[in-house]
Design goal:
- The protein is mainly beta.
- The protein is built from 1 helix and 15 strands; from the N terminus they run ββββαβββββββββββ.
- Strands 1-2-3-7-5-6-4 form a 7-stranded antiparallel beta sheet, with helices on one face.
- A hairpin with a 4-residue loop joins β14 and β15.
- The chain is elongated and about 80 Å long.
- The termini are far apart.
- The N terminus is likely disordered.
Length: about 210
């Protein structure tokens, strides 16, 4: 499953409910709806090492906050926003970050005039197995796992049987044997090779 770097801006259904954001693409996708709930951090802080994008947006206290969180919401790897004080041109700095409300507490840098809004991150408990990728805010569980090719299941907990679903690359004259997280190929009797390639029938003479 391909990881979206940015959610589509076309045909969106977006709702702001109880301090959270809900987004459901009208044209549908593999991930379904995404919801994020932001919590405002106490004090003036803005973790910098997790910032991956900066935007300057027009000033306006409540509108500005919502605009910055909207920008975060549209980036699949964004978990928090740092909102800076207004500058002389009437704009505020909006920093998008993958910092969440529980991780890296020691990294909360004090920055005067900044406000940190961090979302709840359901991926913190590492529910996704076998080196899969966890995306926060999707499905009723509030996360979705992107499994590697050789695993399946909600948390990528199930070994994929490539021999049964015919996704293996064994030669037509080979036998596929499923293994945990992979598979092996063995040439059938009378043929030789590594299983991916089985050459010429071996003629036996009595």
């Amino acid at each position: 499953m391909k990881i979206p770097s940015k959610l589509s801006l076309s045909l969106l259904s977006i709702a702001v409910l109880w301090g959270g954001w809900l987004h459901c693409p009208a044209d549908g996708n593999d991930f379904g709806c995404r919801s994020l709930r932001f919590k405002r951090s106490e004090g003036e802080c803005a973790p910098q090492r997790y910032v991956f994008k900066e935007i300057y947006l027009p000033m306006g206290k409540e509108l500005m906050t919502h605009d910055c969180r909207y920008e975060c919401f549209m980036e699949s790897n964004c978990l928090s926003v740092n909102i800076g004080p207004p500058n002389e041109t009437g704009f505020r700095l909006c920093q998008l970050s993958n910092f969440d409300h529980t991780q890296h507490r020691e990294d909360k840098e004090i920055r005067k005039g900044f406000i940190l809004w961090a979302s709840e991150n359901s991926c913190t408990s590492t529910p996704c197995l076998h080196d899969s990728t966890c995306l926060n805010g999707y499905t009723d569980k509030r996360y979705i796992c992107l499994c590697p090719d050789n695993y399946t299941g909600e948390n990528c907990e199930k070994d994929r049987n490539e021999c049964i679903d015919n996704s293996h690359d064994c030669h037509a004259k080979a036998v596929c044997n499923n293994t945990e997280g992979s598979f092996t190929c063995s040439c059938t009797e009378g043929y030789q090779g590594n299983g991916r390639n089985c050459t010429g029938e071996i003629h036996r003479y009595s």
